[in-house]
Write a structure and sequence with these properties.
alpha+beta; four-stranded antiparallel β-sheet; three-stranded antiparallel β-sheet; 2 helices
Length: 116
């Protein structure tokens, strides 16, 4: 059973939290119901509370989460490991908190230390 985090870190979307993410056979790529895949647009690691973070171990820790940056769906890594995962929450990607956290993640992930 998947549940929404007790205290969502970011505002939740009013859009349906539906669909299933599919992981390819070798486990390297996940495709979200929105059509985004983790190789086309880097999915964002999130900690055990669902907060986007630069410290999370990415997909290697089953207790952590992954966020689709395009639609805001939040997945438990343990569910993604099974090959098909229903989202446990859907963040509002237009909220100030979500966009700020995503921008910070992108600065750390895609710029050099000197340019942050």
């Amino acid at each position: 059973m998947t549940t929404t985090p007790a205290q969502p870190i970011y505002p939740l979307a009013s859009l349906p939290n539906d669909g299933v993410a599919i992981t390819d056979e070798d486990g390297e790529n996940q495709t979200c119901p929105c059509g985004n895949d983790s190789q086309a647009a880097d999915w964002v690691p999130a900690d055990t509370t669902g907060a986007m973070t630069f410290e999370a171990s990415g997909s290697s820790n089953p207790a952590e989460h992954t966020v689709c940056p395009e639609c805001g769906r939040l997945y438990r890594n343990a569910d993604l490991f099974t090959g098909a995962a229903a989202p446990i929450a859907r963040y509002d990607v237009t909220s100030a908190a979500f966009t700020a956290a995503l921008a910070q993640y992108n600065r750390y992930a895609f710029t050099t230390k000197e340019s942050r």
